[in-house]
C-alpha cells in the first residue's frame, strides 16, 4: 500500500515520501493517523514559535475597527474581535500558552503517575495499597472541580494551572503503569536480577521501569490533549491567567457575540479542536505502531 | 477410497511457503501422526485442512474428505463441514473453552450446531458426551464452569465438543503438550479409545516421538514445510529412513528402565530449523545434514516403496532393506561424554 | 565428598485467595559439589517453588538452606548479596528470562557490575570468554535478545549464570521450551560445563528422560513433599514409590510395542488441591495399593536401602518392613520393557 502524497503542512510530498522510505520511518507509512497528527502538531508548534515574529507587539492592543469579519480587511485575515484586537495575532500567541500548559501538566502527571505506578506495581502489598488508595481519592473527586479549587487557592498563573491540571490527572497514568509493572515483576528476568543480588532500586530503574512504559507513550499524547481541554475550560470560566491570552479565554470572551459574530468563538474553538485532534491522532497512531495486530514481516 | 485425501496442499504467506505440496491420506479408523519441530508447518497443515488459515495466508492444493472435495467449497458449506465431519482439538485446553459459559452449555451448543435437537435433548446428549470422555459424575458437572476443571479434564471437555457431531475425522493438534505426563497418558488413551469405538480417522499432530510410537499407525515426518518421510509406525522406529528422522531420534534422551545406560553425549543436530521464507534451496535439511554433498543442491523427489516414502538423495528406496540403513540405536557412532 | 547444598525441612508458604498453601512442605536433601540432583514431579508439586526458595526469589517459611555450611535461608539484603555469586539460576523460558531491551553485553556484564568485579576491560574480556564457553560467537555481543533463536537465548541465560563462576546452578526446566534438536545442544552444553568447571546442578524437570540422562541422584516430589530420593542406579533399577512407578510408566517411549498398553488405570484422577492436602499419604487417593493406614497416617521418608529413601507405608510399615510382602513389586508393564 502506498501513501498518497500529502499536500498540506508545507512539506513537499516528494520529500516526505522519500523520508518515509528510510528504514526507521518505514513503519510510519502504515499509520496515517500518526502522520496527520504529527502534521497538525507541527503546524501548531510552528505557529506558536513564530507568533512573536509574525505578530510583534501585544496581541491585547486594539489594532483596528471592532468586529471586522474575517476576509474583509486584508490587514486582519482572521478579523478582529469586539474590542478591535487582531484575531490572528491573538490566536497565534494563544497557541504557545495552550501548548505550554498542556505539556507541563502532562509532564507532571507522567512524573507522579509513573513513579507511583512503578513502585506500587513492583513492591505490591502495603506500598501498593497506600498508593492506590491515594489515587482513588483523586479519582473519585470530579477532576474539573478539583482543578478549579486548586487554581482558586493557588492563584491563576500558567504554572499553577499546569500544576492543578497535572495533579488531578496522574492517577490514570499510575494505574496504567502499575498494571504493566505487575506483569513485568512476574517475568523471569526480574527474578534473574534478584538472583544476581541486585538491589530493588536498580531492578526498578533498569528492568521494571523501561519495560512498563510502552502503554504510557500512547497515554501521554492523549493526556496532553486532555490537559489542553481542561485549560480551555478553566479559561472559558474566566479562571485562566489574566496576563496571558488563550484559546479558552477567547472562546469565553466571544460567547456573548455568538449570534452576531460566531467567528469569534469558532476560530479559537477550531484551534482547540485541531490541536486536541492532533495529539489524539498521534496517540492512536502510536498505539497502532506499538501494538501491531499483525507482525511486520 | 480413503477417508481423507490430501494432494499438494500448500500454504503460503506472501513469499513464505509454510506448507509445501504436502500429500497424504488417512483411512477411517486409522491414526496418522504428523511429527516435526516448531515451525515445520504441522499446525498450519491442520488449519489448512479445515480452511482456518488466517487471511494473509493462501491455501492451495486439493483436500477430499469422505469423497467431498473441500477445495472449492463456499465458506458457509465449509462451516458445516467443520465440527460435523471434522472435529478439532487444540493444544491449550484453557483457551479452547469460554470461561463465562458452563461446560454443559458449551457442549450442548456444539451438539445443537449440527443437529435439530431441542435444549433438553441437547443437554442429555452433552451429559452422554462428557460420560464418553470419562468425566466422572458427568451429569452433575454439566453446570460447572471451565475454571472448576483441571487441565486434563478441560481437555476432555474440548474433546467432547470436538466429537459432538460424530465427525468422521478428528484432528488433534498437540493435544497433550500442555499437560503432565500422567494426564497425557490418560488423554492419549482416550483419543485412541474414541477413534476405535467411533471409527474415526485421527490426525495427531505432535513434536513428541514417544507419543507417536505409542499412539499412531502411520507417521508423516515434516521438515521446513515438506514431507521428508512417511512410514508405518513400527517401520519408522525400527529403521528411520531420512537422516532428519534419524537425527531427531538420536537427539532425544531415551528413558531406560533397569540399569541406567552409561552417560553418553546426545546426538546434536547442528544449526537451526529454517524459517518459512528463508528455506534453503534444494534439500532443506542439507545444511544441517552430515550426509549431505553436492547432490543435495536440488529438491529431492519423494521416493515411494510400498507404504514407505522418503525425500532424500542419499537413500535409495527400491534397493533399500532395513539392514542397510544405519539404525539410530547403533551407539558406536555416538561420541562418548568424556 | 563435601556437601555443597544442604536443605533441611524447608517449607514455602503462599497466601492465595483460597487460603494459605504450603507449596513446599518439609523438604530435605543434600547435593554434593560437582554433582547433579534431578528434581522431578508434575506441575503443582512444588519443585519450582523449591528452586525459587533456594535461590531466595521467594522467602522460605521455615527450615534451613545451607550452602557450604552457611544458612542462606536466613540472610537478607546486604548480607545475602556476597553469597549470591555462588548460586545462580537458569530459567525455563529463555524469552522471558532476558530483558528484551538489554543488549547481550549489558545482560552479561550486569552480574559483574553488581558484584563489583573487574574494571571495564576485564569485564569485556570475561564476557567474550564466557560467550565462547557456551558456544556463542563473541561478535554477537551487541545484539538484542529477540535477534537470537530460542536455543541461543538459553545459551545466553546460561552464560549469565556462569559469569560469577558459581558452584551451584539451579536449572528450572531449562530445555522444556526448546525443540528436541536444541534440547540436545543445551543438555550437552550443561554436561560439558559440569565436567570442565565442576558445577553442581539442581536440575528441575518434568521430563524423566532428560533427568535420567543428566542426574546423579533423583528426588521425586508429589504435592510439596519428596516421596522418593535415590541415586540414579537405584532409582531407575528399582523405583519403589508407587507414584514414581506410575510416573515412569506414563512416559511415552519411542517403542511402538507399547502401543495400546492401558496405563491409565495405574494413576487415575488429578492432583488434589494443594490448599487442602488429604490427611495421611497425599498420594493415597490415586494409589492402587493404598490401605487404610495410608489414608489415615502420613508416611515418613525412610531409607529402604543405603541412600534410597521412600515415603510409603508399603515399604516402611511395621508389618511390611524393607523387604516385606506388602512392598509393591514392579508392575508387569514396567518389567516388560526394561532395556530396549
Automatic annotation (TrEMBL), chain B:
CDD domains this protein is in? ABC_NikE_OppD_transporters
State the name under which the record lists this protein.
Answer: ABC transporter ATP-binding protein
Instruction: Give this protein's Gene Ontology molecular function annotations.
Output: ATP binding
Instruction: Please report a single Pfam family linked to this protein.
Output: ABC_tran
* Record-annotated membrane-spanning stretches: none
Broad class of the protein's primary localization = membrane
Gene3D superfamilies hit by this protein: P-loop containing nucleotide triphosphate hydrolases
User: Which UniProt keywords are listed?
Assistant: ATP-binding, Cell membrane, Membrane, Nucleotide-binding, Transport
Recorded source organism is Azospirillum endophyticum
- Describe the location of the ABC transporter domain by residue ranges: 4-249
Which membrane topology term applies here?
Peripheral membrane protein
TrEMBL record, chain C:
Where is this gene product found? Cell inner membrane
Keyword flag Repeat: no
The way it spans or sits in the membrane comes to: Peripheral membrane protein
Superkingdom per UniProt: Bacteria
Domain (ABC transporter) spans 5-248
- A GO molecular-function descriptor: ATP binding
Coiled-coil intervals in this record?
Answer: none
InterPro entries, A to Z? AAA+_ATPase, ABC_transp_ATP-bind, ABC_transporter-like_ATP-bd, ABC_transporter-like_CS, Oligopep_ABC_C, P-loop_NTPase
Matching entries from PROSITE patterns are given as:
ABC_TRANSPORTER_1 (PS00211), ABC_TRANSPORTER_2 (PS50893)
Output the Gene3D superfamilies linked to this UniProt entry: P-loop containing nucleotide triphosphate hydrolases
Keyword annotations from UniProtKB, A to Z: ATP-binding, Nucleotide-binding, Transport
The segment annotated Disordered runs over: 320-340
Identify the SUPFAM superfamilies for this entry. Answer: P-loop containing nucleoside triphosphate hydrolases (SSF52540)
Matching entries from CDD domains are given as:
ABC_NikE_OppD_transporters
Q: What family does the Swiss-Prot or TrEMBL record give for this protein?
A: Belongs to the ABC transporter superfamily.
- Name the record gives this protein: ATP-binding cassette domain-containing protein
Amino acid at each position: 500500500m502506498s501513501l498518497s502524497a500529502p499536500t498540506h503542512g508545507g512539506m513537499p510530498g516528494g520529500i516526505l515520501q522519500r523520508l518515509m522510505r528510510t528504514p526507521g520511518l518505514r513503519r510510519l507509512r502504515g499509520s496515517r493517523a500518526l502522520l496527520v497528527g504529527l502534521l497538525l502538531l507541527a503546524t501548531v508548534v510552528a505557529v506558536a514559535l513564530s507568533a512573536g515574529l509574525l505578530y510583534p507587539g501585544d496581541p491585547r492592543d486594539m489594532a483596528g475597527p471592532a468586529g471586522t469579519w474575517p476576509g474583509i480587511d486584508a490587514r486582519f485575515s482572521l478579523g478582529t474581535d469586539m474590542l478591535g484586537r487582531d484575531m490572528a495575532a491573538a490566536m497565534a500567541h494563544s497557541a504557545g500558552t495552550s501548548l505550554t500548559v498542556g505539556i507541563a501538566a502532562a509532564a507532571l502527571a507522567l512524573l507522579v503517575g509513573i513513579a507511583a505506578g512503578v513502585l506500587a506495581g513492583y513492591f505490591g502489598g502495603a506500598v501498593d495499597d497506600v498508593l492506590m488508595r491515594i489515587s482513588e481519592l483523586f479519582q473519585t473527586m470530579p477532576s474539573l472541580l478539583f482543578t478549579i479549587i486548586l487554581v482558586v487557592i493557588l492563584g491563576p498563573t500558567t504554572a499553577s494551572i499546569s500544576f492543578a491540571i497535572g495533579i488531578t490527572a496522574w492517577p490514570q497514568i499510575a494505574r496504567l503503569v502499575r498494571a504493566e509493572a505487575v506483569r513485568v515483576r512476574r517475568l523471569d528476568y526480574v527474578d534473574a536480577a534478584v538472583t544476581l543480588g541486585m538491589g530493588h532500586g536498580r531492578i526498578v530503574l533498569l528492568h521494571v521501569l523501561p519495560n512498563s512504559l510502552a502503554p504510557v507513550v500512547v497515554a501521554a499524547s492523549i493526556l496532553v490533549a486532555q490537559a489542553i481541554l481542561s485549560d480551555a475550560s478553566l479559561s472559558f470560566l474566566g479562571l485562566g491567567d489574566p496576563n496571558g491570552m488563550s484559546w479558552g479565554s477567547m472562546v469565553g470572551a466571544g460567547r456573548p457575540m455568538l449570534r452576531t459574530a460566531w467567528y469569534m468563538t469558532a476560530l479559537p474553538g477550531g484551534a482547540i479542536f485541531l490541536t486536541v485532534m492532533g495529539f489524539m491522532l498521534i496517540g492512536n497512531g502510536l498505539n497502532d505502531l506499538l501494538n501491531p495486530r499483525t507482525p511486520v514481516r | 477410497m480413503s477417508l481423507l485425501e490430501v494432494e499438494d496442499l500448500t500454504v503460503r504467506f506472501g513469499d513464505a511457503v509454510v506448507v509445501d505440496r504436502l500429500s497424504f491420506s488417512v483411512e477411517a479408523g486409522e491414526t496418522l501422526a504428523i511429527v516435526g519441530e516448531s515451525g515445520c508447518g504441522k499446525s498450519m497443515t491442520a488449519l489448512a485442512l479445515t480452511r482456518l488459515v488466517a487471511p494473509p495466508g493462501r491455501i492451495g492444493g486439493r483436500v477430499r474428505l469422505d469423497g467431498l472435495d473441500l477445495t472449492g467449497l463456499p465458506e458457509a458449506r465449509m462451516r458445516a463441514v467443520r465440527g460435523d465431519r471434522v472435529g478439532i482439538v487444540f493444544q491449550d485446553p484453557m483457551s479452547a473453552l469460554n470461561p463465562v459459559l458452563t461446560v454443559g452449555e458449551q457442549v450442548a451448543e456444539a451438539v445443537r450446531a449440527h443437529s435439530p435437537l431441542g435444549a433438553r435433548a441437547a443437554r442429555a446428549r452433552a451429559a452422554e458426551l462428557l460420560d464418553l470422555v470419562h468425566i466422572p459424575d458427568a451429569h452433575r458437572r454439566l453446570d460447572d464452569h471451565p475454571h472448576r476443571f483441571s487441565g486434563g479434564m478441560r481437555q476432555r471437555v474440548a474433546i467432547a465438543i470436538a466429537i459432538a457431531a460424530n465427525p468422521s475425522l478428528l484432528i488433534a493438534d498437540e493435544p497433550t503438550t500442555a499437560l503432565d505426563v500422567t494426564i497425557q497418558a490418560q488423554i492419549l488413551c482416550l483419543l485412541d479409545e474414541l477413534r476405535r469405538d467411533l471409527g474415526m480417522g485421527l490426525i495427531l499432530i505432535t513434536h513428541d516421538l514417544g507419543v507417536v510410537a505409542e499412539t499412531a499407525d502411520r507417521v508423516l515426518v515434516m521438515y521446513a514445510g515438506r514431507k521428508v518421510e512417511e512410514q508405518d509406525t513400527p517401520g519408522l522406529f525400527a529403521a528411520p529412513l531420512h537422516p532428519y528422522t534419524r537425527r531427531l531420534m538420536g537427539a532425544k534422551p531415551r528413558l531406560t528402565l533397569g540399569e541406567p545406560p552409561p552417560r553418553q553425549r546426545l546426538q546434536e543436530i547442528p544449526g537451526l530449523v529454517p524459517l518459512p521464507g528463508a528455506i534453503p534451496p534444494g534439500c532443506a535439511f542439507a545444511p544441517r545434514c552430515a550426509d549431505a554433498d553436492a547432490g543435495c543442491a536440488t529438491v529431492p523427489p519423494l521416493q515411494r516403496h510400498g507404504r514407505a516414502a522418503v525425500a532424500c538423495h542419499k537413500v535409495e528406496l527400491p534397493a533399500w532393506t532395513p539392514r542397510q540403513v544405519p539404525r539410530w540405536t547403533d551407539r558406536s557412532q555416538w561420541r562418548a561424554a568424556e | 565428598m563435601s556437601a555443597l547444598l544442604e536443605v533441611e525441612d524447608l517449607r514455602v508458604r503462599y497466601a492465595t485467595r483460597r487460603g494459605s498453601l504450603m507449596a513446599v512442605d518439609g523438604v530435605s536433601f543434600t547435593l554434593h559439589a560437582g554433582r547433579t540432583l534431578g528434581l522431578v514431579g508434575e506441575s503443582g508439586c512444588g519443585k519450582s517453588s523449591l528452586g525459587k526458595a533456594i535461590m531466595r526469589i521467594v522467602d522460605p517459611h521455615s527450615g534451613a538452606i545451607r550452602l557450604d555450611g552457611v544458612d542462606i535461608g536466613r540472610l537478607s539484603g546486604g548480607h545475602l548479596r556476597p553469597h549470591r555469586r555462588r548460586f545462580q539460576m537458569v530459567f525455563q523460558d529463555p524469552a522471558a528470562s532476558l530483558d528484551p531491551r538489554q543488549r547481550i553485553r549489558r545482560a552479561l556484564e550486569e552480574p559483574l557490575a553488581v558484584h563489583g568485579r573487574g574494571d571495564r576491560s576485564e569485564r569485556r574480556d570475561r564476557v567474550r570468554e564466557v560467550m565462547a564457553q557456551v558456544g556463542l560467537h563473541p561478535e554477537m555481543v551487541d545484539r538484542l535478545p529477540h535477534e537470537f533463536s530460542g536455543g541461543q537465548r538459553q545459551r545466553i541465560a546460561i552464560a549469565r549464570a556462569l559469569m560469577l563462576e558459581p558452584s551451584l546452578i539451579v536449572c528450572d526446566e531449562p530445555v522444556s521450551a526448546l525443540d528436541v534438536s536444541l534440547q540436545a545442544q543445551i543438555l550437552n552444553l550443561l554436561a560439558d560445563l559440569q565436567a570442565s568447571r565442576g558445577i553442581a546442578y539442581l536440575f528441575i524437570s518434568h521430563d524423566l528422560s532428560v533427568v535420567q540422562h543428566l542426574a546423579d541422584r533423583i528426588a521425586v516430589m508429589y504435592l510439596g513433599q519428596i516421596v522418593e530420593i535415590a541415586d540414579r542406579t537405584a532409582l531407575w533399577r528399582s523405583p519403589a514409590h508407587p507414584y514414581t512407578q506410575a510416573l515412569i510408566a506414563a512416559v511415552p517411549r519411542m517403542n511402538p510395542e507399547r502401543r495400546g498398553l492401558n496405563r491409565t488405570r495405574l494413576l487415575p484422577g488429578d492432583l488434589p488441591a494443594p490448599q487442602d492436602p488429604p490427611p495421611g499419604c497425599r498420594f493415597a487417593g490415586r494409589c492402587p495399593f493404598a490401605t487404610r493406614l495410608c489414608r489415615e497416617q502420613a508416611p515418613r521418608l525412610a531409607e529402604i536401602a543405603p541412600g534410597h529413601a521412600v515415603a510409603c507405608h508399603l515399604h516402611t510399615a511395621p508389618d511390611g518392613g524393607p523387604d516385606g510382602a506388602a512392598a509393591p513389586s514392579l508392575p508387569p508393564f514396567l518389567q516388560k520393557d526394561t532395556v530396549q
